[in-house]
Amino acid sequence: MNILILGSGGREHALAWAVMQNPKCDKLIVAPGNAGIAQIADCASLDIEQGGAVVTFAEENAIDFVIIGPEAPLAAGVADRLREAGILVFGPSEAAARLEASKSFTKEICDAAKAPTAAYGHFTDADDAKDYVRQQGAPIVVKADGLAAGKGVIVAMDEATALEAIDDMFGGSFGGAGAEVVIEEFMEGEEASLFVLVDGEEVLSIGTAQDHKRVGEGDTGLNTGGMGAYSPAPVLSAEIEARAMEEIIKPTMAEMAKRGAPYQGVLYAGLMIKDGQPRLVEYNVRFGDPECQVLMMRLGAQALDLMHAAAEGRLGEAQVNWGDDHAITVVMAAKGYPGSYQKGTEIQGLEALPEDSSNMVFHAGTKAEGGKILANGGRVLNVTARGETLAEAHERAYAMVERIDWADGFFRRDIGWRALK
Ligand code: AMP
Ligand code: GLY
């Protein structure tokens, strides 16, 4: 099988790494890729949000199967263009991708499916939104409706912060994403993520994970795309996972099918768990980044078979072969992230690190220049390891981190603390 993966982050490096291990993969191209991906696959520059360009590229390169990593091409209908051209693709249609692209749409689907989630109101007018906040009181959560690169959510612990967030959003600080605003009840509990594959009808769990969104140790400081993650998530017990499947995921997938927008691809359910009850925080229509890195470390080569089965509508006959293992990933980021940071600083020591089924440094934002590896983004490396216990995986990952020589980078030393304590 000739395979094309779209994307350029640590998520796509991990996907490429897993796919490459499967003998069914004859050729792999990643577009646009990064310096780490280029060490294991061909990279090609391509505008991945242009469906026409992706179809032409896939045809010219005799691609049999396309895996779409990030949300932007999904929301832009790239999976639809590929399907229309008769090319097998893993990833939801533009209509189904609204589960991430529009928060008010997701809330409406949850209502119809009676899926437990936060109570909410949605508004296109700032004064109405403010009245609602004054009625409900704080803490309360204000969300831009559309895609805002993970920045469109303000968890307001007091009313003034919520009112200010409403002004910001309607004032255009999130562009078109903030023209509509969802205001939600603040949910207490512990957060964890459940990842499932869906083939339009069947749903198959492929694992749980928890990430650390805050930049600082002890989960303090600004929100980021994620400073580290681990899998499995102990808080998501088999029992709670089963409840999330029966009460949230299956009913919402059935509702999507009923509305003529069956879901195909990976669905990432962010859950808030309290007293054994999971409630939906949000859906994403792609793998989490860096959660994908720990899932791929645990699944290995079978990830390709599973994604292929989802794309071909064969999930009913698929099953996951679980190891009794744990994985963790530590993000190394450029100093200053998630604020402004420098690009182009040199990273040394990578070539001496182990690369095997239990140790892997995935590149998130790097480029190769003159034989050197340079930082080329905010989140730069995902140092990932697997072990029989989380403690073993943790030790392996941090042992690699210590050997990476990058003066301009930083990382959190406490990834996994909740599960390790
Ligand atoms: P989202 O972009 O929807 O994942 O939101 C970012 C983060 O905000 C989530 O991971 C939660 O930690 C928090 N959050 C979102 N919605 C709620 C809510 N209704 N109650 C409490 N926390 C929330
Ligand atoms: N790590 C969070 C996300 O991918 O949305």
Provide a descriptive summary of the structure in words.
The protein has 421 residues and is an alpha+beta fold. It folds into four domains: 2-93, Rossmann fold; 125-179, Dna Ligase, domain 1; 190-317, D-amino Acid Aminotransferase, Chain A, domain 1; 326-420, Alpha-Beta Complex (Glycinamide Ribonucleotide Synthetase, Chain A, domain 4). The chain contains 13 helices and 23 strands. It has helices at 10-20, 51-60, 71-75, 78-84, 98-101, 103-113, 126-136, 159-170, 238-258, 291-299, 302-311, 390-403, 417-420, and strands at 2-7, 27-32, 42-43, 65-68, 88-90, 120-123, 140-144, 153-156, 181-185, 190-199, 203-211, 214-216, 220-223, 228-231, 264-274, 277-284, 326-334, 346-347, 359-363, 366-369, 372-375, 379-387, 409-410. Strands 10, 11, 14, 15, 16, 17, 19, 22 and 23 form a nine-stranded antiparallel beta sheet that branches. The chain has a five-stranded parallel beta sheet with strand order 3-2-1-4-5, sandwiched between helices. It is globular, with a radius of gyration of 21 Å. It starts with a strand and ends with a helix. The relative contact order is 0.14. Glycine binds next to loops.
